[in-house]
C-alpha cells in the first residue's frame, strides 16, 4: 500500500560539505567495519501489508550470463504464478538499455498481467527517463546515490549538485505522469541528516505539489545495515 509521506516537524537543510564524509571511524580501510551504539532504542514500525518487488531481471543478471528474451518471459510468467492474484510479487524491475532489454519488456507487457507490474530502472538522466517514456511504462526506479562515497567519488559532484540533478529528473517524470521510485543507493554509508532526510523532504514536496506517488527505496548496497534497534546511524536499519 502506498501512503502519503508522513509530515516531519522539522525541515532539514542539506549540508553541502566541501569534503566527503566517509565515516572513516566506522569504515577504516585497514580493519573490518565497526558498529556503533548510541543508547537510543528505535522500535520496529511494521506496515500492515508486505509485498515483493522482484529484481531478477536487473540485479539477478549481474552475477551470471544475461538471460535470453525467452528465458525472461518464462521467468516472468513463473513470477506471475508464484505471486498469485493478490500480487504478493507486486512489481518487477527491468533494465531498458539494450535492444534485448527492450524486447523483453515489450513481450512481458504483451502478457497484460496485473501482477507483477513491469517497471523500469534508470539513472537520473533525461536520456534514461526518455527510455522509460518510450517504453510506455507507468513506473520506474531512479538511481539516486546518497552516500558521499558515490556522490563525490563516483559522480564527481557536490551534495547540492547531486540532489538538484535528481530532483530535476523526478519533476520531469511526474510531469509525464510516470510514478517514481527513488533508490537511495548506499544509504548505510550516507549522512542521514545532512543529505538523506533533506532529500526525502524535497521529494515529499514534489508529491504534495503533483499528487504523483514518489516511493523511496532504502538500499543497503554494501550490506552494512544491521537490525539492532540500539545501533547508531548510518548502519542501523530501524
What would you note in describing this structure?
The protein has 238 residues and is α/β, with parallel strands linked by helices. It folds into 2 domains: 49-122; 124-238, Aldolase class I (TIM Barrel). 33% of the residues lie in helices and 15% in strands. The protein has 6 helices and 6 strands; from the N terminus they run βαβαβαβααβαβ. The protein has a 6-stranded parallel β-sheet with strand order 1-2-3-4-5-6. β2, α2 and β3 form a beta-alpha-beta unit. α1 (69-83) runs parallel beside α2 (99-110) and α5 (159-175) runs parallel beside α6. The longest helix is centred in the C-terminal third of the chain and has 19 residues, at 192-210. The protein is globular and about 50 Å long.
Oligomer: single chain
Report the radius of gyration as a whole number of Å. Answer: 19 Å
The percent range for strand residues is 15-25%
Number of helices: 6
- End-to-end separation in angstroms reads 20 Å
Uncertain parts? 1-7
- At the first level of CATH, the class of the largest domain is Alpha Beta
- Percent helix among the residues? 25-40%
Going across the major beta sheet, what is the strand order?
A: 1-2-3-4-5-6
Number of distinct beta strands: 6
What topology emerges from the helices and strands here?
Layout: E1 52-54, H1 69-83, E2 89-94, H2 99-110, E3 117-123, H3 126-134, E4 139-145, H4 148-153, H5 159-175, E5 179-185, H6 192-210, E6 214-219
Parallel strand pairs: 1-2, 2-3, 3-4, 4-5, 5-6
Helix pairs in contact: 1-2, 5-6
Amino acid at each position: 500500500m502506498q501512503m502519503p509521506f508522513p509530515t516531519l516537524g522539522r525541515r532539514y537543510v542539506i549540508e553541502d560539505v566541501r569534503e566527503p564524509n566517509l565515516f572513516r571511524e566506522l569504515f577504516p580501510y585497514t580493519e573490518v567495519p565497526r558498529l556503533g551504539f548510541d543508547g537510543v532504542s528505535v522500535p520496529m514500525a511494521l506496515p500492515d501489508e508486505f509485498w515483493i518487488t522482484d529484481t531478477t531481471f536487473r540485479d539477478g543478471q549481474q552475477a551470471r550470463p544475461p538471460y535470453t528474451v525467452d528465458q525472461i518471459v518464462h521467468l516472468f510468467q513463473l513470477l506471475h504464478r508464484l505471486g498469485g492474484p493478490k500480487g504478493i510479487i507486486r512489481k518487477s524491475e527491468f533494465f531498458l538499455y539494450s535492444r534485448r532489454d527492450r524486447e523483453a519488456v515489450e513481450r512481458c507487457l504483451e502478457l497484460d498481467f496485473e501482477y507483477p507490474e513491469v517497471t523500469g530502472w534508470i539513472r537520473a538522466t533525461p536520456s534514461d527517463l526518455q527510455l522509460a517514456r518510450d517504453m510506455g511504462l507507468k513506473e520506474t526506479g531512479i538511481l539516486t546515490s546518497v552516500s558521499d562515497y558515490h556522490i563525490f567519488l563516483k559522480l564527481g559532484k557536490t551534495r547540492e549538485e547531486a540532489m538538484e540533478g535528481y530532483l530535476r529528473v523526478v519533476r520531469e517524470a511526474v510531469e509525464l505522469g510516470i510514478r517514481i521510485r527513488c533508490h537511495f543507493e548506499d544509504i548505510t554509508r550516507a549522512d542521514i541528516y545532512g543529505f538523506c532526510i533533506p532529500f526525502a523532504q524535497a521529494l515529499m514536496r514534489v508529491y504534495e505539489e503533483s499528487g504523483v506517488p514518489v516511493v523511496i527505496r532504502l538500499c543497503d548496497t554494501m550490506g552494512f545495515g544491521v537490525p539492532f534497534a540500539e545501533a547508531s546511524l548510518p548502519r542501523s536499519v530501524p
